[in-house]
Write a structure and sequence with these properties.
about 270 residues, alpha/beta, Multidrug-efflux Transporter Regulator, Chain: A, Domain 2, Methyltransferase, Methionine Synthase (B12-binding Domains), Chain A, domain 1, Rossmann fold, 3 domains
């Protein structure tokens, strides 16, 4: 049927198991028609569910982020993943897991460490569990089909906050772009070499989590502007709108959702095979 998808294709787009997608059909959350032995879903109905699932969870619902935070602090990989699976089954999209569950939980843990309420070992243990969660979710951010363009993401030299880079890379990838992920603490000349090898590039995304790396971020952006005709979007806990402008970036993103919007607004939406 033209303009329809199989339930298996819908599950892949939603980033959930096939049986979860089937449960959506049985509960009426995803309209579907049975054709022979196969369920078919209109593309417009899938897009509507994706739009709802990508929104932050309602305040009156379960506080999945607090539950996840508890399991992260306990160093409980299995328990943390069980929270993620339950949130996915409730209708939250993988993007929501990253932005509305994991990021706030890690933010509170980081604040607790800064205030002296959480030890360094507890913070490191939580981060280790979060890294495993992000790795396991990664494959759910690889939609099929033609990509919107190629995005390179990395950090300036000295920056070692790798988890935030991995999260934002997943989110950009899930929005339909091809992502070249350079990790952290890459020398500027090596960063530029990777960008040039990846041409054509629709945009460059730079993450800075520590204020002491702002000078290196400025040097990186200057290097990009000097040789690559592509906009630079910058984000991270050390960046705000004022800092972004001072560093010479073309756009600033407060979180993963904002990064996607900023890239699109700057023209990072061209097709790439």
């Amino acid at each position: 049927m033209a303009g329809t998808l199989s339930l298996k294709e819908c599950a892949a787009r939603l980033g959930v198991h096939y049986m979860t997608a089937y449960r959506y059909v049985r509960l009426g959350r995803l309209p579907a028609t049975k054709v022979g032995v196969e369920w078919r879903v209109l593309s417009i109905d899938l897009e509507a569910l994706l739009a709802v699932a990508a929104e932050p969870p309602s305040r009156g619902g379960v506080d999945w982020s607090a539950r996840l935070e508890d399991r992260l602090l306990a160093g409980d990989v299995g328990g943390a993943w069980a929270v993620v699976e339950a949130a996915l089954a409730s209708g939250l999209a993988p993007m929501g897991i990253h932005v509305d569950l994991l990021a706030p939980a890690l933010g509170r843990i980081g604040a607790g460490w800064y205030d002296g309420d959480i030890s360094i070992s507890e913070e490191h243990r939580a981060t280790a569990v979060a890294t495993k969660i992000v790795g396991r979710l990664g494959m759910r951010f690889s939609p099929r089909g033609r990509r919107r363009g190629r995005i390179v993401i990395g950090t300036p030299p000295g920056e070692r906050h790798s988890l935030s880079v991995a999260v934002v890379a997943d989110l950009i990838r899930g929005a339909g772009w091809e992502v070249i992920e350079l990790g952290v603490d890459l020398p500027i000349d090596e960063f530029m070499f990777a960008v040039e090898k990846s041409a054509p590039v629709a945009a460059i995304a730079v993450s800075v989590g520590a204020s002491e790396n702002l000078g290196a971020a400025r040097d990186l952006i200057t290097a990009v502007k000097g040789s690559i005709m592509a906009p630079v979007v910058i984000g991270g806990s050390a960046i705000d709108a004022t800092t972004s402008a001072g560093l010479g970036a073309d756009g600033w993103a407060s979180d993963g959702r904002a990064a996607i919007k900023a890239i699109a607004a700057l023209g990072g939406g061209s097709s790439s095979s």
